Amino acid sequence: MSAAFQNPPVHLSADTPSNASLPPAPVTLLDESGIPHFGQFAGSVASLDWSGLAQPYRRSAWWQRLHHKRWQYVALATEQIFCAVAIVDVGWTNTAFAYVFDRQQRRLLGSFSQDGLPGLTAHLNNCPADGVASHFRFLGNSIRFWHNAQQQCYQLIVDAGGCQIRAQLLPATAAPSLLAIGTVADNVHATCKSAGMPLRGEVRVGQHSFSLDQGCGSYDYSNGFLERETSWRWASAHDTAGGFNLQSGYFGDQENALWLDGRLIPLARADFAYDAGQPMRPWHITTADGLLDVYFHPEGMRAENKNLLIAASRYVQPIGTFEGWVRASPEATPRRISHLAGVTEDHFSRW
User: Fold this and answer.
1) Residue 78, CB half-sphere, CA atoms under 13 Å: how many?
2) Which pTM does this prediction carry?
3) What per-residue confidence (pLDDT) applies to 259?
4) Residue 227 domain flag
5) The domain containing residue 267 runs over which residues?
6) For the domain that residue 119 is a member of, what is the CATH number?
C-alpha cells in the first residue's frame, strides 16, 4: 500500500512530553483476589478467562451465560480491495459475516452473512492474541482465524458466500497491540486491538483474483459481559506505519488509541460528527485531547438490519479513506495522513 502517513516520522526527544507510555500487559486478566487488572496496556494477556471473577463483578452462572459476548473481527486492506470478516458468539446464538469490497469499482464483489446454531456453528476461545482460535462452519460455509505459532503469523481462511480468502498477517515488525480492560455499566469487558501488520495471501471472488501482498491486516478480539441493549460508533484504520482505533458508546474512551511509527499512544474521548440518516456522507472525528482530527470519505457500505423478535441488530459499516492529521503529544508537530483505508460503524444490538 502507498504510505498514508505522508510526512517524515516525528522523532520525540527524551525530554519531550508525551502520553505514549502505556504499561505492559499484566500476566493474567484477574489478580489473585479475582478482580480484573483494569486499564489500558501494551500487549496482551494469554487468556481473557472470566471464570475466576470475584464480587462485586461476578453474577450468577445463568446471568453470565445470557450476557457473555465474544467476537473476532479481521480487516484486510490493499490498494485494490478491503475485506472484513467477523465471528460473533453471544451464547444463545452466533453469527458471522465476510465481505470483499472493490475499492476501484466502489462496490461489494462478494458478501456473506449467516446466523448459526447455538453451541454448534461458532467457537471462539479465550485467547486474544497468541493462541487465538476462532471458527464458524455452517451449510458448507466456513471461516477460520488462528495463530500459527510454527509460522509466526495469524492465518485467516474464508470459504463463504463465494468469497475465498487465504491470508497471513505477519506480526514480527508490528507495533504492540492494545489491551483494554474496563467496566461497562456494572459489568466487565476486555478487548485486544492489533496494530497494522504486513500481509501475504490471495483473495478470490468468482473470476476476480487479488494479491494481498503489500497490504495491511489487523484484528479485533473482544470478550466480556454487556447489557441487553448495546450501541457504539466506531472507526478503525491501519497501514504498517500507523493507524487508530476509536469508539464512542458502550466502552467509552477505554479502547481509543493511536499507533504511530511503532508506538502505541492512548487517546481521549472520540467525538463523531456524521449524518446517521445518510452515512455515505463524510464523517468528522476528533479526540478531546487534540491528538487526532480526521475526515472519513465513504466509498461504499455494508449494512444489515435484523429483527429476530427476542434480538435485533442495526448495523452500517461504510468503507472508505481517512484524511486529516494526528500527533503523538499536544506539543508534537501534526502528522498528515491521506488515503488511509478503513471503516466507520454505527451499530445497535439488542442481544
Assistant:
1) 21
2) 0.93
3) 97
4) yes
5) 39-49+59-350
6) 2.40.370.10
